[in-house]
Amino acid sequence: MDHRKMAALHVMEKLEQAGYQAYLVGGCVRDECLGKIPQDYDVTTDARPEQVMEIFEKVVPTGIRHGTVMVVEQKVPVEVTTFRTDGKYSNHRQPEKVEFVQSLKEDLKRRDFTMNAMAKDRNGRIIDYFGGRKDLDEGIIRTVGDPSERFQEDALRMLRAVRFANQFRFVLDPATEEGICRHRDKGGCLSVERVTAELNKMFDADTVSHGFRLLFQTRLIHFLPPFCRWDLPDEAVKAMPQIDPIKNRTVRWAYLLCLCGTRPDQLAERLRQLKLSKKENKEISACFSLASRWKGPDDSMSREDWCRILLEEGPEAVANAANLARLTSPDGQWIPSDSQLAEWWNGLKIHQARELKVSGRDFIRHCGWEKGPWIGKVLQVLLEQVALGHLPNEKEILLKEGCKIGALHQK
């Protein structure tokens, strides 16, 4: 048994021994019904947060205001939340207050979709008040109760509905889809961070075209920040299936930016608006910029040209850009395949400047010049020459050739 599930079951057992109810709840129950391994196991209970904290030694009050604490059991963090009902929601995002209750059904009733509103006891019995198992079997995303109420409470649920439909290749229940269309303008209340977090999850799925078809079909994407400020041609969604075979979040983001008509001079600002991580921005920018340098078959780039780019940019960045260029070029067949790029990379004699038998310090001592940018230029040229087999990786030869190259860069 998964150690995370064992930890959750131990938490449930201790709660029950103390006289409380305890169930697995939400996504872990859904995933097990689908035959998938859950990422984590959440527990719901009628014990109040302070009562949970009395039972367990290691507890972190992560969201105690909303009834959630993190119990560390067998070195595994398990989220434990008290049965609750939600009060009035503020700004279509979160409840202003919650009320703790003793009824599991009341707790499950506040949840977003039927497939996420199931619970499971320690013996494996599923508690399903709202037809979640049937909707899972039929591949339907359906809200618990009135879609309008659910989406007015938390506008992110509209985007989550689309993300789940994409992830599981499900359809939206007609009333749920109608609710999204009716309340899509409330998507403007969401923060960019919440939107991009959901889209990142969608980009991590096996395919993405189904989700984007729903985003355009419901027009929800036109109200989500920052896309509401961009020019989004409806034709873009027709091109999305091309990205499905490429299981790479960086390339998928870069392709979406291309479909949105992003020009090179707009890229930095649009990435800033998306509020992705610095690492993601750097990778997407490199992918976008590098792919835009390759104009077409007339470039007639040789194997050595590609190897130089591989050495300069790195194999992952080049593979990402090559995938993007194949998608966006009128004739992308001239761009080497991933396997061809990998073969060329593996065929190089060395891959990094630190593998050279000389260092920058060697050149400063041997050539007698001050430290400066010339060192990096010399090492890059020598890296290419040795990697391609044009020079042996021998110190004396590299010092001699390096000084010749360095002389060209001295003022």
TrEMBL record:
Its EC number is 2.7.7.72. It is an enzyme of class 2 (transferase). InterPro entries: Bact_CCA-adding_enz_type3_sf, CCA-adding_enz_C, NT_sf, PolA_pol_head_dom, PolyA_RNA-bd. Residues 170-226 form the tRNA nucleotidyltransferase/poly(A) polymerase RNA and SrmB- binding domain. It comes from the Bacteria. CDD domains: NT_ClassII-CCAase (cd05398). Gene3D superfamilies: 1.10.246.80, Beta Polymerase, domain 2 (3.30.460.10), cca-adding enzyme, domain 2 (1.10.3090.10). It holds the Pfam family PolyA_pol_RNAbd. This is CCA tRNA nucleotidyltransferase. The lineage of its organism: Bacteria, Bacillati, Bacillota, Bacilli, Bacillales.
